[in-house]
Each structure stands twice: as structure tokens, then as C-alpha cells.
Give the backbone structure.
Amino acid sequence: MLCKIALGNVRRVGKDYLVYLLTLTLAVTVFYAFNTISLQVDIAGVTEQNSGMGDLLGGIINGLTLFLAFVMGFLMVYANNFIMKRRKKEFGLYQVLGMSRGQVARIMALETFFVSLVSLVLGLVLGVGLSQLMVFFTASLFKTQIANFHFFFSFGAFMITVGCLLAIFLVTLVFNLRVVARAKIIDLMSASRQNENIKVRNPWLSAAVFVVGVALIGVSYARLLQDGLPYDGQPEAMTAFLVTTIMVVVGTILFFLGLSGFLLKALQAARGLYWRGLNMVTMRQLAAKVNTVSFSMAMIAMILFLAITSVTAGMSLASVMNESVERGTPFDYTRVLVYFGPQAVAEENAYAEANGDSTRYAVATEPIDLVEASKADTVGEGTADAHPFDVSQIAGGHVQVDVYDSTPLGADAPLVTLNQLCDATDMEMPSGVDSTGTAELGLGVVKESVYNAYLRYRGMDEIDLGANGYTIISDMGATLNDIYNAALAQGVEIDFNGHALRPVSDRVNEEASAFQNAMFGMNTGTIVVPDSYVEEANLPLYYGYLMVDYADGISTEEGDAFINELRTYHPITNDAGEIVAGWGSEATRTQSYESVDSMNGLISYLAIYIGFVLVLACAAILTIQQLSGVADASPNYRILAELGTPTRQIMHSTLVQQAIFFVFPLFIGVAHSCVALSVIVKLVQLFGGFTIGGAVGLTAFIFLVAYGGYFYVTYLMSKGIVRDAIRARHSL
Amino acid sequence: MPVLTQQARHAAGAAGVAGAPVLDVQHIEKIYGSRSNVTHALRDVSFTVNQGDFVGIMGASGSGKSTLLNCVSTIDKVTSGSVIVNGEDVTRLKSQQLTKFRREQLGFIFQDSNLLDTLTARENIALPLTISRVPAKETLARVTEVAGRLGIRETLDKYPYQLSGGQQQRVAAARALVTNPAIIMADEPTGALDSKNARLLLESFETMNRTYRATVLMVTHDSFAASYTQRVLFIRDGRIFTELRRGGSTRQEFFDRIMEVVAMMGGEGSDAL
């Protein structure tokens, strides 16, 4: 019997439940589809190149799902409250007719259960379908080929989804039971009349609050643009950033608290406009609702801001890597040797002595031939065919660049620093570099002949420094290169160990600056000077770079296989047996590309997942609020109709109200994002050209369609509610 | 502007063309339900209301008095017959024309005041004018003037929830009056009021009727309220049972005559009316 009533109720109040159902179904769909990620990367062939990727992504997504389940749970409770508010009277009636509270509670539990069940089934069907499609999306994100596509169903994802839904169901149930258990029958019965307690704020006060909010937002924008992000973790910077964050949050809340009052005052000032058509009704409806919704509008603006910023920044970062990897990987294989500097040698020796270790370290006096040094690695150590790692077996050509530290042996200051260049060119130290030690660090130094050998190897024009010339190379982004370019263009004179050097070129040649394969620029600034000055300055060796291209007969696969064979490394020693250097990173071109593709895919995937769910949640909250608002105001719409207002005009008024509720949070969210992104752009430019575009545009479009879709659905549904209200004849 | 033409008519009425029929109801029928379950809510009802009349309609619950008001006010559709307002048969109007007609020719007052809870009294009264796009200056002047006549000028900047029931009804009356409609329809306007507030409201109606020569059609089951009118139509079982005119008699005499008819129809005390 209770079951029958519950089913009947779901059918009868279907319209109210529709929003709930829609949101829950979407949540289930998205949950399931994204939690199948580990299976998807399998099918998309991502794991073939990067075996850890599936687990990594799966793990991150599972963690995120928990967070998002929380968001969704909150949303569901909210959606449910909307339905409950509408039906208090009905539940009161059941009790008046003699049902016990337990029975009423059971009816409600059954209703929630039915709706949850329906959304689970619908959502799973959609989710399974979506996840099949998403395999193709995943493959394109990770730039892989789908080897054998087949239908798949993830039991793990299914369990997670059901678990989340169950949790949401239980929380909702507890809330609902509380409503029934606590409420007195008289309150339930008069619930519809209780809704109409309208508190009206003083519009002048609201307008003032609005102005304060705008001012706070403006100041926080200025502060952020001025200070940048506190990524270096300095306590003062963190405090300043915290203050800015609090300002923008408070500003946003005040903005929405005062918004309707401000609009009301502004429109009232234009008398002809205010006393015209339904304009005053529209404004008053907005002002009446603002008490209940302004806080959530502020929340939504902030969530939209987070979603937009993370998606845009994430996807743009991915595109930076895509671009810079082209520039950063000019060779088939590169290997880096790191020399021990005088300070490191002293520390290591002291440490070894203290521990009774006989190992001793020393500063290298001569550059080490990296091809020869590589032979110290053993391939297949301990096996019968153990042999040295001889790069020349696959190398068609190779070149070596040795970089010196610009602090001479025995000296305590570098010959050339970034600080010095900034002062000379009157440029600001870029944020992110100042207040850290890097500014004081010197630039690397390369001999003219070595750099020319590098240029020759790459088929580029050699440079001639003459007797007193220099140039700077770097493959970092605009932030650093702007300074170097300015120094070169302005002909800044450098005192290099007593020799006055002048630039021979007027800008950094970024294309001829990469010494190793990497996703980002790695050469943060190296000065090229005539050979004799380097020798004379008695500089210690810093890095050795080996750059190799495979021989004509060797395919990329063969070369990569040769490089990737399991090897044992050994430290590099001098004739006296003292350790002078250790191996740094090595990378084949293929590895660089793959890690970029994987990183790209990972970032885009997470950005879209988080962004999509958050935007969905925001839109759903707005929809529910708007629909409940329209339902609350439907007596007013009926009065308007009876007074002879054309239906079109009434619909127009609701449309304007809803547009304000949907557009303003979006507008504020986008404004916040623009400011935040402009700061992030500056930071990322350190690593290379940063552009927002391409994939971001498409994603933004999809989000906008989803958000707009909710707006449209809201409008259509509220049109229905208004029409019903108008049609209901006056019967008292 | 429609409002201007109404003013012209208003002026004409004031000049003494009283007696011209504003409303002419001819043989209207209203049938509810399907073939198996038919309710005859109105059977062949005909009457006329002249410019400046204050007419009451009385009847028991279910007698059809509210249906009659709804049909005349075009909120409901008649099954047959015609309702002619100022020479125009409103039963033939399309829905858009109906909306326009309601806006320009009718004023409504309901049992619960039906004010918009989000608007101040001033804005509520102004609403019909702003919907008709009357200029702001004229709107505000008319609102103030009407509110002054009905004694609610000091409440203009308050919200409905800050007003008493009687004040709310008088605001609703001002809203009905502000457009100078051809007819003001009042459906149990005193139904939710205590006797003091009911009296105040009915006196406002008399003011409207006398000073603005507004034509008022009031449905009520309260003999006291009906005694303020000039003429009472009694409805029973969907038909006009009888009609009383006040003529030169005092309100008290008229009240006694109404009570007689009510008693004859079934007795007010038995809650039949």
C-alpha cells in the first residue's frame, strides 16, 4: 500500500522530481564513465607506451570521485529539499488522515529509493554508452591508436558508482526523515503559507554593500596582478596571497548580496524605465529572492572561476609542452653529465671521511669525452654477454657541449649574473626568479669553438665573436629571454674577468639553444665567449651534454631499443680514481614525445573531469533554485495574468530574472578567471610561449552548451509552471 | 490610449448619461463535465448593468454566483449566450484580445486581496497602469490621487505583509479603480475581513461608486455587504431567482428586505447562503 502511494507520488510530482532525476542521472553517468578510465587507457593503447599511466590516472580519478561525490551529495540534498518544501502540506495531510510518522517516513524513503533506482539504471546505461565513446576521446588526448576496440563494462566503476549513490541516498534519507520527525502537523499543513515571509532589505544598504563588494574585488585584482602567485612559498608572499584570496571571496559574496538592491536602486533612478511594463515586478522579484540565493550565487561564481581557471590553465600548459617539445628535442638521444663543483667536492669528501669511506671526490680539470665515458656503463651486468654501453654503435653523428660554471675556482661570485643584466638593462627582475637564490647564480659559460661545433653539427651558421665579443643562448620563455634580448640589443658591456665584452648579436637564438631532449626549455641562460678567456678565467666544469643522432641504417625503434636496454651506471673518475662527475638525465626523442603526450592527456583529462562535474553541479543548483523560486512566485504570476498582463510579458519577466541569475555568476567567474589566468600566463611563460586556444576553445564551448542547456531547461520548465499557474482559475 | 477613452466615457457618465448599459448579459449557460456527469452551473441567465450601478449578486454556495462572475469577467468561458460590455461581445474575443479587454475594461477585487507580495502598495496599485505602458509621471499621479480617496495614502510605501487585511483590500480596490475600468468585479471582497474592516471597505466601494461613478458588480453571501449596493440579484440553482432594488430606501431598510428574500430562499442561519 505504502509502495503504491509512493509510486503514485513519484508519478504525480514527476515535474518536481525531474530536476532531481536529471541531476542524479547525469551524476551517475559522469561517475561511471570517468571511473572506467583505467580500462579505457588499456583499450586506447596508452598503456603500451606508458604502463603506469592507467593506474596513475585511475588512482587520481578515484580520489577525485570521492571529492566530487561529496559535491554531488550536497547538491542532491539541496535538490531534495526543494521537493520536500513543496510537499510539506501533503505529508501533513497523511498524518491528519491518521498515518503514523513511521509510515509517512517510509513513503518518503520509498519515493527516494524509486527515483534513485531509476537514475541509477538510466545513468548506468548512459554511462556505459558514454565510456565506449570516451575511449576514442582518450585515444586522441593521449595521441594513441585504438588497437582492438571492444565493448567493455567496468565492474570496479560500477561498484564505485553504486557506492556513491548509496551514500547520497542515505544522506538524503536522513535529511528527509528529520523533516518529518521534527515538523508539527500544523506547520506542515500551513507550509505553503509560511513560504511567503518576505524580508525586504533596505535597498540603499544593499547598494552600499554592492559598491563595497565591487571595490574589494577591484582591490584584490590589483593586488594579484601586482604580487603574482606565491609559488616560491615565501611566508610574506603567502600571507599577502591569503589576504587577496579572502578579499576576493568576501568581495564576491558582498557583490551578490548587494546586487539586486543595486539594480533596484539604479533602475528606480530611471523613473520612466522602472514604472514601465513589468520592470518593477522583475526587480522586486529579484530583490525578494536575493536573501535566499545570493550566497549560493557567490559560491557558484567561485566554483565556476575554479573550473574555468583549472581547465584553461591545465589545457594551455599541455599545449605549451606540445610546442616546446618540438623545439626542445632536436636530437635522437641526449645524455647529461653533471660535474662536481668545488663546493660539492669539499662536502662529499668531508662526508666520506667522517663515515670512514675511502671514496674521494675531485674537481675535473679537463672536459670528459662522453662517448668514451658512456662505455663505463655495463649492459646486462652479471649475465654472460655483459658488455660496455657504446653509443658509437648506433650513432650516425654526435656532438658534445661542455658548459662551465661562471664562478672561477677560488672566487666566490660569478662573473655574469642575471641580476647584473637586469640592472644594466633597467628591467624588472621577473617574479618567480627574484627573492630566490637563482638571481645571484651565474650564467653558464661555453667556449666559442665548442658552440660553433654544435652549430655546425646542427647545420646552422657559425658565429664569430671576434676578439671581445659575446652572445647569450637560452631556450626559456619570454620572461627570461626578454632580459637577455634587451641586454644583447642594448649592447650591454660585460666585465668578464677583466675583459670588456660586447654582444655580437642583437637577440637570443632560441632555436640553437637546446642541449638536451626535454619537455620544457632547460637552458636557463648560457653566455658564449672566446675560448682563451674561458681558459684564462680558470672556470670549473658544470655540465657535459652529449647529443646523438642515429646512423642512417638504424631505425628509431632499433636505436631506442639499444638505448633502453638495462644498464648499470658507474661514477666517472679521473686518473687518480677520484670521482669527478655523475650522470644526469638522458632521453630519447621518443621518450620526450611520449611523456609529453601522456602528461598532456593526464592534465586535459583531469581538467575536463573536474570542470565538467563542477559546472554541472553549479548549473543544477541554479536550476533548482530558479524553479523553486518560480513555483513560490506563481501566485504572483496568476495575479498578473488576472490583471490582464499578456502571457508573453510575464514570460519575459521570468526570463530576465533567470538570465540575471545565470549570467551574473558566470560573468564574475569569468572575470576572476581572466585576472587569475593573466597571472598564471606570466608564470608559465618562464618555460615557453603560453597560448590559450585550440582545445580550450572547444572545451569552453562544451561547458557553455552544458550551462546554457541548463538555463534553457530552466526557462522551459518555469514557462510550464507559470502557464499552469495562469491556467488555474481563481477558485476560493 | 485606452485609458483616455475611458476617461472620456467617465466624464460622459458623470455628466448624466447614467443608464446606458455597460454590461448586457444575454441568455448565458454554463455546463461543466462530460456527457455522463453534467453540471448545469448557469441556466439562461440574463440581466443588464448600467453605467454607475452598484450591483450585488447573492446566492448559496454552489448556486452559480461565482461562476457567473467568472463568466462575465472572462476568466471562464460560457457554454452559450453572450456577454456584451460597452457594445462588444466578449465571448467572441480571442485569448489575446481577452487579455487586452481584461486589462482595459475590468478591475478585480478578490476575497484575499491578491496583492503581489514583493511589491509595495504604491507599486501594486500602479501595476495595471505600467502594464498598459502609461507614462510614469501620470501613473504616479493617479496612484496618489486614488489612494487619497480611499484613505490609504500613508500606507503607499509599505509592503502587503505590513498592512492589515482591510488595508490590503482597500489597496486592491485602489488597484481595480486606478485604470477607470468599465466594470469593477468584486468576489466576496469582505469574506476575509472583520466587521469593522468590512464596513470600511464597503464605504470605500460607495465612494468609488459615487465620486468616480464606477460600475461595481459584487458577489457576496453576506446580506450586510449586499445592503450597501443599489440592486441585488439573487441566484439559485444557476438561475436568477429574483432581484431587489434599493430605490430611495435607507441601507437598514434595504438590509431588512434582503434578509426577507434570504429567509425565503432557505435561511441564512442554516448556512445555506
In short: Confidence is low (pLDDT under 50) at residues 1-18, 268-273 of chain B. Residues 163 and 211 of chain B are 25 Å apart (CA to CA).
